[in-house]
Amino acid sequence: MKKNVLIIGAGGVAKVVAHKCAQHNDELGRIAIASRNISKCQAIIDSINAKGSLKQPGELKAYAVNALDIEATKALIQETESQIVINVGSAFLNMSVLRACIDTGAAYLDTAIHEDPSKICETPPWYANYEWKHLDECKDKGITAILGVGFDPGVVNAYAALAQQEHFDSIESIDILDVNAGSHGKYFATNFDPEINFREFTGTVWSWQNREWTPNTMFEVKRTDNLPVVGEQSLYLTGHDEVHSLSKHLDVPNVRFWMGFGEHYINVFTVLKNLGLLSEKPVKTAEGLDVVPLKVVKAVLPDPASLAPSYSGKTCIGDVIKGQKDGQPRELFVYNVADHAEAYAETDSQGISYTAGVPPVAAALLVARGDWDAQQMQNVEQLPAKPFLALLDTMGLPTRIKEGERDLPWDQF
Fold first, then answer.
1. Which of 222, 221, 245, 248 is nearest to 234 (CA)?
2. Where do runs of H (alpha helix) occur along 64-219?
3. Is the pTM of this model over 0.70?
4. In terms of Cα–Cα distance, which of 161, 197, 199 is closest to 178?
5. Buried (b) or exposed (e) across 288-316, using 16+ Cβ within 10 A?
6. What does the pLDDT look like over 38-79, one tens digit per residue?
7. Distance from first CA to last CA of the chain, Å, rounded?
8. ∠ CA(71), CA(280), CA(245), 5° rounding?
């Protein structure tokens, strides 16, 4: 049974992860939080103490580490005796942290696919460019590595697996819908790391259609859906991590990801992009300074974690799944609705961070208990969905299934 958790990262998602680990420290043991900025780690610890989140008295410590430094990360894993590492730092860190876990024997969990800072929207499937290259090594060494176990990717993968196993004989399409119907009150801001956020939308939009990779451009393809609680929303076809694993592991000819955007976001994004301010390539200023425009934009935008106190409204994220059951066509929407204000009241974080931060802690608990201690590298859809969704029900992210007018908790459907 694995115990003691090292959290890499100190942003909004890391704060949720830390709060939730604290709420379950009777099972997860000691908690270490590490990033380059130790003061951010300490601020998270202060938040946990202020909220009284620790389930029982236990160790909660902050550390400074550059997670790109594999040897330093290995040393920290060993110093803290951490058997589970939850990587919620930048997506640029994945391969370094994964290597440290493989070398030390710790279980590895992350919430997003690895990215090379110099490359955007690489040739799909994206996992094959980085993480999946270590499939054999993890299996040979018995290393548990669970990839993309946030909400999307993560919970939506479990939704797809549950639907395939329980509710369909065959599936024709999986359309993942992600809507944030909340308001942060700022002129413009992103809900997570601006650099990672913008990189998702400036390159080719890859989707899996008719069993092949299909390219589009951002905001080229639109749909409108009337969703539970949040109502009618406009969503746009977007490239995203989970499409790249679901297309491999589930025998489904069409897998797409759609994200909701308001007109204001689209207008600001378009201006920034057309001015070249979202480029990841360095440029030289008139003063001879080399700067990366995207990093400058990131520096002037609000820190996503700072949005939490004034955030209101709700999110709705789920899978529209179409296929056949008992010879008849069927369509289900498997989904969750989360509330920004409720997330802040519990964890000092907004709803986007909450939906991303709760699932890796549920996964860590399943690893600690043995249910998900796979001793190999796997994506979420390859693991048992029911214990994961059952835990999420108790941890603040309940799942529902809607079919026509019928709308019930997933375990009553």
1. 222
2. 70-80, 94-104, 126-129, 135-141, 155-162, 194-202
3. yes
4. 197
5. eeeeebbeebbeebeebbebbeebebbbb
6. 999 999 999 999 999 999 999 999 999 999 999 999 999 999
7. 33
8. 65
